[in-house]
Amino acid sequence: MDKISVSSKQFIDEYGRERIFCGVNMGGKITPFMNTYTNAESKHILKNHIKLLHTHGFNVIRFFVNWSYLEPMPKQYDENVLNGIKEFLDICKENGIYVYLDMHQDLYSSFRKEINPTLHGNGAPKWACITNGKKFKQPKRIWAEGYFTGKAVHNAFNNFWNNAEVEGQGLQEHFCDLWRMLAKRFGTHPAILGFDIFNEPFPYTYDKNIFFIIVKSAIKITLKNRNISKRRLISSLLKKEPLPTLLSQYSSKILYEITSPANKYIEKFDKEKYSPFINKVTAAIREVTDNGIIFMENCYYSNMGIPFSAPPITVNYNREKNQAFSPHAYDLLVDTPFYKYADNERVGATFKRRKCEQEKLNIPVLVGEWGGGTMIPDWFDHANYLLNLFDSFKWSHTYWCFNPVIFNSPLMNILCRVHPIAVCGKIESYHFDKENQRFILSFNQDKDYNVPTEIFCHTKPKKVKAGGAYAIKMLDDIHCILLLTAKQGHHTITIEF
Question: How many angstroms separate the CA atoms of 323 and 8, rounded?
Answer without folding.
Answer: 10
